[in-house]
Amino acid sequence: MFREISEEELYDYQSHVFDRGSWVTEYLYLFPRTIQAGVIENEWWFSPEATGKRIRETDLPSWPKKRVDALNHFLTTLFDFSISKPDTGDAIDSWICAIAHMGLNIQPYLSQIEASDYHILSYYVENAHDLSQKKLSNSSWESLQIEHNQIVEWFYSDKVSSLIEKAYGIRLKS
Q1: Mind listing the pLDDT tens digit for each residue in 104-113?
Q2: Torsion of CA 52, 56, 60, 66, to 10 degrees
Q3: Which of 126, 117, 116, 115 is nearest to 91 (CA)?
Q4: 136: helix, coil or strand?
Q5: pLDDT, tens digit, for every residue of 131-170?
Q6: Cβ contacts of 62 within 8 Å, gap of 6 or more
Q7: Domains of the chain, residue spans
Q8: Contact predicate 100/144, CB 8 Å
Q9: CB within 8 A of 103, min separation 6: which ones?
Q10: Model's pTM, two decimal places?
């Protein structure tokens, strides 16, 4: 059923759905197809950060536990898929920001990144220019100060900053 919904139909839907009052049920119904078309098939423009904001607007805390667990499982799998590609720094940053916008705990995803020096360094490179000022490069973090600071602190942690120093000769100092 979902595969029958074309990228054009999804785009038209996404462009107008939020103009209507009762969009949540439709949005959640089409969410898996939206992810499939935007991330897996890479057939249309897709913004993880915008998706994260929309999920938060669905009143995620009111979701049944089973649905939240399914979302977390889905995001973990999607995150693994997204970071399995070369040049993952942008994908890591976008998905961590999206997950934070959803209101979910970002720590498990930081732990996924920590499993690979390559992913840590890719994420660092995406933010290197601004980290010396204790900022992240992605402007979507602006409304998420607590989560933003959590990511910055993660970069400045001994494990991560030591790896950055070893790779680039730059030590992030508190």
Answers
A1: 999 999 998 9
A2: -10
A3: 126
A4: coil
A5: 989 999 999 998 999 999 999 999 999 999 999 999 999 9
A6: none
A7: 72-168
A8: yes
A9: 56, 60, 61
A10: 0.82
